């Protein structure tokens, strides 16, 4: 998120805005039209905001007393950036202090699974309509982080891979997911992220489905080198820290390549790289375009949490 005196600019999935108020009515001000948002009051879901174009106000009423408001961006960066212009308290009231943020932090680097693509979809075929059915707050990544009492960042783009994006006619793409790592806003090459402003305790990388789900696939050597390159980006940013290479059970070839990448990292002396496999959800837990529904994400998150606990001692 890029913040200045007039607005906050963002596009990554599950970007969150949190504040506390003692006020009977709050208006959220957005300049957007591309993205949808969840609104929670005191930890309870209140409503979804589907923004319209231009600058608009989205009001809601509160019971008397102090309240904690959490707004989460449902949609990933593929839909475009949004601007949050602040809040208005039209019936008076005041901002109050927030409780301390979690001290544990996990960064997730991924694709549509991390974004939560189609996880609230009505069927496998969503008729080309995706925006209402994407809820990044309920992808496996924030679900797992919340279970571990950790704050999370999701650096993820639907359709992108470690070296090859979905449907590319070539075995590699010019701008796969690692190309965008380090950007504050995906679509802005001029806004570099300050890695020291938020240092995670763990980085989880779930990439490779888009590299391997269509032909022509990258060779094992090219893909694994791409994973090594991304790990190097992470360690350059943060120093050596635990990294999980995560794969689900849907693509055995990808599982094998991620295992090899892990073994090679360890043979080079980086014993902080771990491989974790989770079970791909059955068809009954799949939504748009065969992507996991929220129930599928919850199952994957449960397995991931069990793997993370012994690694971090959490």
Please describe what this structure looks like:
The protein is α/β, with parallel strands linked by helices. It folds into 2 domains: 2-96, Jelly Rolls (Sandwich), CATH 2.60.120; 104-312, SGNH hydrolase (Rossmann fold). The chain has 7 helices and 15 strands. It has helices spanning 112-115, 140-147, 177-180, 209-212, 220-238, 252-267, 294-312; strands at residues 2-3, 8-10, 16-22, 25-32, 36-41, 44-50, 54-61, 66-73, 82-88, 94-96, 104-110, 150-156, 202-206, 243-248, 273-278. The strands form 3 sheets. A 5-stranded antiparallel sheet has the order 1-2-9-4-7, with no helix packed on it. The chain has a 5-stranded antiparallel sheet with strand order 6-5-8-3-10, with no helix packed on it. A 5-stranded parallel sheet has the order 12-11-13-14-15, with helices on both faces. A hairpin with a 2-residue loop joins strand 5 (36-41) and strand 6 (44-50).
């Amino acid at each position: 998120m890029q913040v200045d005196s007039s607005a906050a600019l963002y596009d990554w999935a599950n970007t969150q805005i949190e504040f506390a108020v003692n006020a009977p009515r709050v208006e959220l001000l957005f300049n957007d039209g591309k993205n949808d948002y969840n609104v929670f009051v005191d930890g309870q879901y209140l409503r979804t905001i589907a923004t319209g174009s231009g600058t608009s106000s989205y009001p809601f009423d509160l019971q008397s007393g102090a309240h904690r408001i959490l707004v989460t961006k449902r949609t990933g960066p593929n839909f475009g950036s949004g601007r949050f212009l602040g809040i208005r308290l039209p019936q008076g009231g005041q901002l109050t202090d927030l409780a301390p943020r979690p001290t544990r932090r996990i960064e997730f680097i991924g694709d549509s699974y991390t974004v939560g693509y189609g996880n609230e979809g009505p069927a496998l075929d969503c008729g080309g309509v995706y925006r209402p059915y994407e809820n990044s707050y309920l992808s496996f990544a924030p679900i797992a982080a919340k279970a571990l009492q950790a704050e999370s960042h999701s650096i993820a783009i639907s359709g992108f891979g470690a070296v090859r994006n979905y449907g590319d006619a070539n075995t590699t793409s010019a701008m796969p997911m690692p190309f965008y790592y380090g950007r504050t806003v995906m679509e802005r090459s001029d806004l570099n992220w300050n890695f020291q402003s938020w240092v995670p305790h763990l980085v989880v990388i779930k990439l490779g489905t888009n590299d391997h789900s269509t032909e022509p696939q990258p060779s094992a050597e090219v893909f694994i080198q791409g994973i090594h390159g991304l790990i190097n980006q992470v360690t350059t940013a943060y120093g050596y820290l635990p990294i999980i290479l995560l794969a689900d059970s849907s693509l055995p070839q990808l599982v094998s390549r991620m295992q090899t990448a892990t073994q090679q990292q360890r043979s080079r002396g980086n014993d902080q790289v771990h491989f974790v496999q989770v079970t791909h959800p059955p068809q009954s837990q799949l939504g748009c375009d065969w992507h996991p529904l929220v129930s599928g994400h919850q199952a994957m998150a449960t397995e991931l949490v069990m793997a993370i606990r012994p690694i971090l001692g959490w």
